[in-house]
Every structure is written in structure tokens, then in C-alpha cells.
């Protein structure tokens, strides 16, 4: 079925400030201010690509992509980032098992184009989406989606897991758009005009955007100052979520990194592992299936050697544009390879319209046509056509198959081409033995030359390892890496626990970030258990973050300020009726017990740090009604004790601390979240 028409709009220019503009939109509907995605350059025969539909032609250095390098970039673009927008005819969140349509606000924040230098003072407008209907004000958690390489509205629509758990966690949802994608264009229509404008398209700059956005939200949204933030992302977004926690642990309390191949760099994993997993998916889905695909390449090579054979291939595959030469035949093979990989990515247990309308477990259906690898060339390729026709024409409405109508056509933002040619260098290769594809070595020098001819830049294959640590990440914490056993990107993912707080969850029956999709009655038990574990860890991070940042619980940790603020309920003397009681000799200038009524917040003196109330006499308290309270004179106080009542710890009072010991004991998570395990 042909892809539906996409919306064309004019995004705000980088020097315009739509601050304060808020547009109410409903999740699952087409955005009123969406953006048309450009076609992807489909190989050397296609000519010079355009700048993402956003401006003039890219200034190329000359030369086209070799078929394999073009295919590799297409695969990197398609397969790592299947959540991208234009590939979706209708938002999956409107289908079976999905939550109801929910409203969100579209907002924009002025961001620095360059966060790490002081010479460039230009700014741009970053788009972000906010949904807070389930948010518990006064420091409820924030689930923050680290946007991928595409229009953020579609990521919002395709991350049903966040919408499913928002009510349970009483969380605000924030979806942040990645710079250079969607409407967040640093140089407006000129963003893709040359490599100088693209110089600020890096993961580091994107993470800095996210950090600034979170700080802005906490400073401007009433009740969000101490809200724990959990980063969530899938594919490249999952990589960003993990890296966000690594680089900004003071901003995000934890991260869920789904299908995030953070180790698909350098020589951390074999370059052929990715395609081996694709092959295994087909091999175990039907006898003779992977062997039939392996034999199909020789059959195409044989038939494409003559004009008559090219015509036969064009007719057999019902191609909209006939094959004319060997270069076109190479494109046919790239197109078929892309199809097999796409199927591995979207091998979901239920019908889905992700890249194409597909049946449940689509590889099993495809393999029904590929049972006999010993057939003659023509009979074998006729069966291959039946298999790909199921992928591209499951609805039966297409009159011909267009090799440009792949996921890459819709996912094709030039921004990712640039990223793949700079820091996102992921080596891949095939050998035709451990996989079902034609042999092709990874040739970095050739890849680098192609990138230089196209962009005028050279890739830095080791930069990501230097920046984010490669496999040396044991010093980090609070990251869950989830990977599907059917997902070829799991080859570069974290699939074993590293520490108690760097946790790997493997979903044997899961394709690409299945756990981030909306709940579905046909979900395998393995993904149900994975989601339960993910929620468990998120609750644990949220509770610990609250203990560290909630002003009452923070008494035993690092102090921040001198001012003590109260809830609208004033300080009450006398009987212990609140969650936290402080007994000291000079509270309110009198001997006795003072109770902190709930809810209350306490910000401590900078000099406090590890000693309670060791503050100068200028430290004061005041209620929110503005009446000034009396001073604590801790230096005049005798030893005191602190307890937490049933409202905080289910009746388990903490032991009192007197004399020289003036700290709360270390944080211990509650029994429900101290150990997460599958049921």
C-alpha cells in the first residue's frame, strides 16, 4: 500500500522566538504543525540528494556512494531507528491494546546552538511535548523521552509504554526533539546547506539540549523543582538515554535504554554479529528459509548478466521502474537485503502497521514461501517475490513495487547520514557463511573517502568510545538496558548485568524495542515480565531520588540552602503528629518538641552538610503565607534525636541519634523495590 501523503509545514526559524506558544494536540492524531520528511538518496544512480526538504542542495564534494556503502548507511538509518515518523501510516497507539488518545502540549525552548563554546551566540527553538494529566504535582516524577533522529510527535505516538505507566507512576511525560530533526532546526532552512552548519549536530550537543530543557522545566513548572527525572529512549534514543544518565547523573535519576547498541562501535563486537542475528531469525522461522535467501543472490547475479534476464527480474518482481543495468540489479539486492532486515526488526507477535501493514510473526509467514532452497533460479526468485510482496503489499492494493518505497524513503533525514559520517561509525560486514547475505568486508578507508566526498568531513571511529567509555562503564549507575532476542541490534547492546545498578534485561521473544510499544493482549510473557522489571527499577530510582532531594529526607545527605520553608500549615508545637519530629533544646526559642506538619519542605544551610542544624543563627524558617518564623540557634541546643513515623516508613521508626552522631542512617529502599525480579 502506498505511503499516505505527509504534511508540509514551515517550522519556526532559528531566529524567531515562539516562546510561550502552546498548542493542544491529541496523541495519535496528525500534528497540526508536522513536518514533511524528505526522500533518502537511494544510491549512486539517484543523483544529488536534497537538503531534507528544508532548503537548497547539499554542496557535495563529488562522487556517489558505492552500492554497499549506500546500503550500509540505509540500514543504519532504517534499522536502528524504526520509530521514525513518516514510516507510519497511522499511529500504532490508536490500535489494539493501546491507551486512549491523550492530550499533550507543544512548546518551544530557546537553546544555544553551541553549548560548549563561547564564540557562537546564536540560538534556535527546540520543540518539546508535555503531557501532565497524570502528574502528581509537588515533585511527582518526570519521564523524559530522549528524542531520536526524527519528528518528535511520532516518537510520542509510538512510545506507548510511557503512556501506559504514566498514571501508575503519577508521572509527567516530556518528549524532547533532537536538534536538526523535525522542527528543531538550528539554522532554519539553511541547516543542511553545508557541513559548517551541520557541525553542531552531535550527540553531545543533543544531550546538553536535554539537560538545559530539564533545568528549565524544573525552574518554571510549579511543584517540579524536586521531581525525579527518568530518561527513556529506544534505538538511538536509547543510546542517548544511557549516555544522558552517564554524563548528567545530577539531572536524571536513571535511564531505560531499550534496544540501545552502545557497543556497536570500534571492535567491541564482531562486525558480522548483526547480520548473523537476522539470519538466525529466518533460520528458526522455517526450514530452508535462510538457505533460500542465501541462494537468491547468485540467482539474481546470473539473471542480471543479460538484458533478457533484467527484463525477467523486472517483470517477476513487478517493479514500477524496470532494471536497466548491473547497477540497478545491485540496487535490487540492496532493496531485498533491507527488506529481510526490516522484517527482523518488526517481527512482532501481533498485527502491526509499523513500517508496513504486517501479520503477526511476519517472518514465519514470509518463510512459508521459502521452503526449498534447491529450486532453479527462476522458481526460487518467484518465491522470493511472494515473500517480499507480503511485506510491501500485504493489503493487496499495490499495482507494482517501488524500490524507493522502503522504510528508508520515509526515514531518510540527511542528518543521520551526517552523524554516521562523523561520530556514529558502526562497522558492519557479512561473510555469506554465518549469515545469509552476500560477502562484504568492512572497509573503513573506503567509507571515510565516501563521507569526505559527500560532506567534506572524515569520520572519527573511536570518538564515541572515548566520550562514553565503551565497555568501561562499571562506574555508572541506574541504567536498565533492554534488548530483544530477535532484534539484530542486540548484537551491540548490553545483554548481561554489569553491576547491581547497570542491569540487562533480555526479552527472548522481543523484536526491536518491543517493550516500549503499548501493551497488547498478544504480548509474550517475556515482554510483560520485562516491563514489570523496568517499572520496578524506575520506582526504585524515583524513591531513592526523592530521599536524596526531598528536603525532609535530605537531612542525612548534602545540604543546599539556609532557608526553611513550611507548608501552608504553620509549625505546630506540642504533640508529635507529623511525619518527622525534631527534638532540640532551642526550637522556636523554647524547650520542647516541634513537629514538621506534612507536607513540608526543608532546605538546609550550605555549612550543614553532614551535621544537622549546625547553621549560623541567620538560618530561618518562614511559611508560604509570608510570615517570618523564629530562628534556630543550633549552637545553643543540646543533643537531639530524629525519628520518622508510620507515615514515612510503615511504622518502622529509625533509631534515634544523639550526642556526636547527628546524621540520618543511609538510605534503604523499601522492601517492594529493593530487589526487582521477574515473576
Automatic annotation (TrEMBL):
Sorted alphabetically, which PROSITE patterns does this protein's record hold? IPNS_2 (PS00186)
Q: Which UniProt keywords apply?
A: Carboxypeptidase, Disulfide bond, Glycoprotein, Hydrolase, Iron, Lysosome, Oxidoreductase, Protease, Signal, Zymogen
Catalytic activity entry: Cleavage of a -Pro-|-Xaa bond to release a C-terminal amino acid
Which EC number(s) are documented for this chain? 3.4.16.2
Organism's domain of life?
Eukaryota
Q: Could you tell me which PANTHER family the record lists for this protein? A: LYSOSOMAL PRO-X CARBOXYPEPTIDASE (PTHR11010:SF38), PROTEASE S28 PRO-X CARBOXYPEPTIDASE-RELATED (PTHR11010)
Report the sequence similarity comment from the record: Belongs to the iron/ascorbate-dependent oxidoreductase family. Belongs to the peptidase S28 family.
By what name is this protein known?
Lysosomal Pro-X carboxypeptidase
The upper taxonomy is:
Eukaryota, Metazoa, Chordata, Craniata, Vertebrata
Amino acid at each position: 500500500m502506498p505511503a499516505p501523503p505527509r504534511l508540509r509545514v514551515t517550522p519556526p526559524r532559528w531566529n524567531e522566538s515562539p516562546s510561550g506558544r502552546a498548542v493542544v494536540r491529541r496523541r495519535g492524531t496528525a500534528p497540526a504543525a508536522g513536518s514533511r520528511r524528505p526522500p533518502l538518496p537511494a544510491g549512486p544512480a539517484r543523483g544529488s540528494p536534497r537538503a531534507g526538504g528544508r532548503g537548497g542542495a547539499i554542496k557535495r564534494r563529488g562522487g556517489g556512494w558505492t552500492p554497499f556503502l549506500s546500503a550500509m548507511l540505509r540500514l543504519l538509518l532504517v534499522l536502528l531507528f524504526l520509530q521514525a515518523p513518516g514510516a507510519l501510516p497511522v499511529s500504532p497507539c490508536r490500535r489494539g491494546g493501546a491507551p486512549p488518545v491523550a492530550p499533550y502540549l507543544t512548546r518551544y525552548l530557546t537553546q544555544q546552538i553551541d553549548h560548549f563554546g563561547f564564540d557562537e551566540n546564536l540560538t534556535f527553538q527546540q520543540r518539546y511535548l508535555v503531557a501532565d494529566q497524570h502528574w502528581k504535582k509537588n515533585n511527582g516524577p518526570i519521564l523524559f523521552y530522549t528524542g531520536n533522529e526524527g519528528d518528535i510527535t511520532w516518537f510520542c505516538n509510538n512510545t506507548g509504554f510511557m503512556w501506559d505507566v504514566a498514571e501508575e507512576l503519577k508521572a509527567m511525560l516530556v518528549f524532547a526533539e533532537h536538534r536538526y530533526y523535525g522542527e528543531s532546526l538550528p539554522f532554519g532552512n539553511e541547516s543542511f546547506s553545508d557541513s559548517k552548519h551541520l557541525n553542531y549536530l552531535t550527540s553531545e550537543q543533543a544531550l546538553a539540549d536535554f539537560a538545559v530543557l530539564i533545568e528549565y522545566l524544573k525552574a518554571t513548572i510549579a511543584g517540579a523543582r524536586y521531581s525525579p527525572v527518568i530518561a527513556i529512549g529506544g534505538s538511538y534514543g536509547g543510546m542517548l538515554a544511557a549516555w544522558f544518565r552517564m554524563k548528567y547523573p545530577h539531572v536524571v535519576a536513571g535511564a531505560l535504554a531499550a534496544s540501545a547498541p552502545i557497543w556497536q562501535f570500534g571492535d567491541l563486537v564482531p562486525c558480522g554479529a548483526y547480520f548473523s542475528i537476522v539470519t538466525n531469525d529466518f533460520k528458526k522461522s522455517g526450514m530452508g528459509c535462510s538457505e533460500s535467501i542465501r541462494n537468491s543472490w547468485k540467482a539474481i547475479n546470473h539473471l542480471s548478466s543479460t538484458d533478457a534476464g533484467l527484463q525477467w527480474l523486472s517483470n517477476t518482481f513487478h517493479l514500477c521502474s524496470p532494471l536497466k543495468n548491473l547497477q540497478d540489479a545491485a540496487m535490487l539486492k540492496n532493496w531485498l537485503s533491507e527488506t529481510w532486515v526490516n522484517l527482523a526488526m518488526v517481527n512482532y507477535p501481533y498485527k502491526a502497521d509499523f513500517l508496513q501493514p504486517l501479520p503477526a510473526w511476519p517472518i514465519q509467514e514470509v518463510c512459508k514461501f521459502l521452503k526449498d532452497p534447491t529450486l532453479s533460479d527462476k522458481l526460487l526468485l518467484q518465491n522470493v517475490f511472494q515473500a517480499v510482496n507480503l511485506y510491501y503489499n500485504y493489503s493487496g492494493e499495490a499495482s507494482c513495487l517501488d524500490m524507493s518505497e522502503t522504510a528508508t524513503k520515509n526515514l531518510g533525514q540527511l542528518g543521520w547520514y551526517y552523524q554516521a559520517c562523523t561520530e556514529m561509525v558502526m562497522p558492519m560486514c557479512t561473510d555469506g557463511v554465518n549469515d545469509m547475505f552476500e560477502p562484504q568486508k568492512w572497509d573503513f578507508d573506503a567509507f571515510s573517502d565516501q563521507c569526505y566526498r559527500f560532506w567534506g568531513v572524515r569520520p572519527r571511529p573511536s570518538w564515541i568510545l572515548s566520550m562514553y567509555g565503551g565497555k568501561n562503564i562499571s562506574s555508572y549507575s541506574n541504567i536498565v538496558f533492554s534488548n530483544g532476542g530477535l532484534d539484530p541490534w542486540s548484537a551491540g547492546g548490553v545483554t548481561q548485568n554489569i553491576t547491581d545498578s547497570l542491569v540487562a534485561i533480555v526479552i527472548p521473544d522481543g523484536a526491536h524495542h518491543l517493550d516500549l510499544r503499548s501493551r497488547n493482549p498478544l504480548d509474550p510473557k517475556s515482554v510483560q515480565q520485562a516491563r514489570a522489571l523496568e517499572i520496578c527499577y524506575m520506582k526504585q530510582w524515583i524513591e531513592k531520588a526523592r530521599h536524596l532531594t526531598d528536603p525532609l529526607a535530605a537531612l542525612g545527605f548534602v545540604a543546599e540552602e539556609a532557608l526553611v520553608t513550611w507548608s501552608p500549615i504553620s509549625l505546630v508545637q506540642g504533640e508529635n503528629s507529623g511525619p518527622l519530629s525534631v527534638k532540640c533544646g532551642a526550637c522556636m526559642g523554647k524547650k520542647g518538641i516541634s513537629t514538621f506538619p506534612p507536607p513540608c519542605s526543608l532546605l538546609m544551610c550550605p555549612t550543614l552538610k553532614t551535621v544537622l542544624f549546625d547553621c549560623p543563627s541567620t538560618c530561618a524558617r518562614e511559611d508560604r503565607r509570608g510570615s517570618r518564623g523564629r530562628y534556630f540557634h543550633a549552637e545553643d541546643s543540646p543533643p537531639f534525636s530524629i525519628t520518622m513515623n508510620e507515615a514515612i516508613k510503615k511504622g518502622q521508626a529509625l533509631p534515634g541519634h544523639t550526642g556526636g552522631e547527628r546524621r540520618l542512617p543511609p538510605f534503604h529502599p523499601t522492601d517492594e523495590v529493593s530487589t526487582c525480579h521477574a515473576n
